[in-house]
Fold this sequence. Notes:
By secondary structure, the protein is an alpha+beta fold. The chain contains six helices and 18 strands. It is 26% helix and 26% strand.
Amino acid sequence: MNSIRLEKNISLSNFTTWRIGGPAEWIAQPKNIEEIKYLITWINKKKIPCNIIGAGSNLLINDKGIKGLSLCMRNFKGIQIDKNSGIVEVLSGEMLPTLARKAAASGLHGLEWAVGIPGTIGGAVVMNAGAQGDCISSYLESITTLSLTGEYKMIKKKDLNFGYRHSLLQNEKLIVVSARLKLVSGHSEKIRKLTNENLNHRLQTQPYKAQTCGSVFRNPEPLKAAKLIEELGLKGVRFGGAEISKTHSNFIINANNASSCDVKELIKYIQKKVLDAYGILLETEVKQCGF
Length: 291
Ligand SMILES: Cc1cc2nc3c(=O)[nH]c(=O)nc-3n(C[C@H](O)[C@H](O)[C@H](O)COP(=O)(O)OP(=O)(O)OC[C@H]3O[C@@H](n4cnc5c(N)ncnc54)[C@H](O)[C@@H]3O)c2cc1C
């Protein structure tokens, strides 16, 4: 094994797309499975907790930081695509847009919706990420996981209890190591066109370049959280440095050095307004760490 860097007191704000978050007591970014196994042994020896981070695109991390090891998976990369069978084996730190582009270039259809989601495969499986009515679980066959005590397990899709932005992995702490997907052969040019259209649509309808975590609230189906918030005239409302996007009202922007507290207060404010007006308690989609 080559040497793994274990760093102390590193700000997690550079590990989230919101650019919010206090220091990790310890952080490591393993590049291969040996390094991950080494880190598991290390946390067990030290008896410290472990928190898993993908690309941090769905995380609100407390300004006070996180105790124990923050295990950041974004350097754990690798993709194997078999064009003939449509089988894709991908390591969990690979980014969804990279995978979507590579699948499109291989003439494989299924991930055109994924091109604009700035998360890793691991995070996508945990969250059952999706868009345009499609989601990762539609194409998943199985995943390989490593427990925090070091046991491997292959888990089939049917055992992952997938639902709308939900999977079993949100209740059980397992490291997603890799995923096996099955995509469908299609026409390369058509797939590429749809992929580009989906990204353009996002650029026009979301504050895509801003510091956000995507949609903050789950949709209270069949209703849309963004519509409920917009109808109450809340676009642009600001708490400290956190602001409800004027482009898409289910997005909260870190407009000016927002603290985790600013975001939490704004979330509570939106929830109260929507509850008072419609009797609906919006649930957050974003995962909160260190609170
Ligand atoms: C601009 C923008 C647009 C977005 N659009 C969408 C969208 O259209 N649809 C959608 O579904 N989401 C969207 N999101 C949210 C986010 O990108 C997804 O939820 C994504 O799947 C999260 O992946 P991640 O790697 O960033 O996970 P993180 O945010 O780092 O983590 C999310 C959860 O997964 C866990 N986790 C991450 N990696 C692993 C792993 N390897 N093993 C075990 N657990 C792990 C974490 O512990 C945490 O509980 C958007 C976000 C942004 C910023």
